[in-house]
Specification:
InterPro entries: Restrct_endonuc_typeI_TRD, Restrct_endonuc_typeI_TRD_sf, Type-I_RS_S_subunit. It contains 9 helices and 22 strands. It is α+β, with helices and mostly antiparallel strands. The protein folds into 3 domains: 136 residues, Adenine-n6-DNA-methyltransferase TaqI, Chain A, domain 2 (Alpha-Beta Complex), CATH 3.90.220.20; 85 residues, Bipartite methylase S protein (Helix Hairpins); 119 residues, DNA methylase specificity domains (Adenine-n6-DNA-methyltransferase TaqI, Chain A, domain 2). The strands form 8 sheets. A 4-stranded antiparallel β-sheet has the order 4-11-7-9. Strands 15-21-18-19 form a 4-stranded antiparallel β-sheet. The chain is elongated, with a radius of gyration of 26 Å.
């Protein structure tokens, strides 16, 4: 690839990064010039878990097809090489203008508030999809207060820049291969996560619980508020969503298990090492003599907190309740063996997650540099 150099400092319709065999400016159009638009239809009356077709709605698109709803009728058929875009979302939502590319015929049907596009004049639909996906032109309609509902005229007025077809194909092919690699990486991560969970569940199901949790760990809570932490400091402060800030002092050192004790993430477990602190939304567990905290962490990852939840609007868990639950603890030596095994898989998982982050960053960089 080559970087575009503009010695005359004129505003040119060319991307910053380009395959070396291509030259010349891209042509500027609006989306309506290069696609045929179609709206989806309501499918409420034909939703059925055993339906033959996948309903392409905003949830399906926003989760990259992970969350699916099936229907019995293909009221708004989608065809291979089309792409779709979400037209409606909540304030500051992540689905607005998100796109999905159709790879198969006779499989999908389009729901209302999602539109489809068919490329015209030989233009490459996948290239167009990458260009308009979450395009800032659409995101500016989100005022952060009200639900956004894009009109057809607003959708089709998006400016697009079009090179020759061969360049479109090459860009689309590169980005598609990165997407395929990202999908593979996600599968690797899912397999490792399933392996850790499976081993931990095997330990739990194959052995009779022999000790109560409060006999293994000590529990403490903090009055630290997230609003009291700083952007900089010597030691991290953990909250419900990981590190929320820093302080120049700490409450724990060595190792600790944090459990979210209230809110939507109640029962979520994390393991940390080193000097750090926690906000008041977390329980802090530390091992008593003769117990491996890391071993207990992996057991708690598959522990069922549901029977111990209280509160309707905001669920809570209390150590005085779940601490009475029995868990299986073998000898200390065996605990360490299990912990080392699961920790080794966890380390591999961290490496794979870092690879995924790098792939995602690469894709975002190319999207910024290879389009105008």
């Amino acid at each position: 690839m080559t970087t575009t150099i503009n010695n005359e400092h004129k505003k040119l319709n060319v991307p910053n990064l380009r395959f070396p065999e291509f030259q010349g400016e891209w042509e500027e159009y609006t989306l309506q010039d290069v696609v045929t638009f179609s709206n989806g239809k309501a499918h409420e009356n034909c939703v059925n878990d055993d339906g033959d077709y996948i309903l392409v709605n905003s949830k399906f698109v926003s989760t990259n097809g992970q969350v699916q709803k099936r229907v019995t009728s293909q009221l708004s058929p989608l065809h291979k090489y089309q792409f779709v875009m979400v037209m409606s979302d909540l304030p500051n939502g992540k689905a607005l203008a998100k796109c999905f590319y159709v790879e198969e015929d006779n499989k999908y049907t389009l729901n209302q508030r999602v539109c489809s596009f068919t490329s015209n004049d030989g233009n490459v639909s996948r290239f167009l999809m990458y260009q308009i996906n979450r395009n800032k032109y659409y995101l500016r309609f989100d005022d952060g207060i009200n639900q956004t509902n894009l009109k057809k005229s607003e959708v089709l007025s998006c400016p697009v820049f079009i090179p020759i077809v061969r360049e479109q194909e090459k860009i689309a092919t590169l980005l598609c291969k990165i997407d395929e690699r990202i999908a593979t990486q996600n599968k690797i991560i899912d397999k490792l996560q399933s392996l850790i969970k499976g081993i931990a569940q095997k330990i739990v199901r194959s052995n009779k619980p022999n000790v109560r949790l409060y006999e293994c760990v000590e529990c403490s809570s903090s009055t630290q508020q997230e609003s009291e932490v700083c952007e900089q400091g010597a030691y991290p402060v953990y909250g419900a969503n990981g590190i929320v800030g820093y302080l120049d002092d700490y409450n724990t050192e060595g190792e600790a298990v944090y459990i979210i004790k209230d809110g939507s993430g109640v029962g979520t477990v994390s393991y940390v090492t080193g000097k750090c602190s926690a906000t008041g939304t977390l329980n802090t567990l530390q091992a008593k003599d003769g117990y491996s905290l890391q071993y207990l962490y992996y057991l708690l990852k598959v522990f069922n907190f549901e029977p111990y939840k209280t509160g309707m609007a905001i669920p809570h868990i209390y150590f005085k309740d779940y601490g009475k639950a029995k868990v299986f603890c073998p000898s200390y030596t065996e605990q360490l063996q299990y912990a080392r095994l699961l920790s080794a898989i966890d380390s591999k998982l961290s490496v794979e997650k870092n690879t995924l982050r790098n792939l995602s960053l690469l894709k975002q960089y190319l999207l910024r540099q290879m389009f105008i």
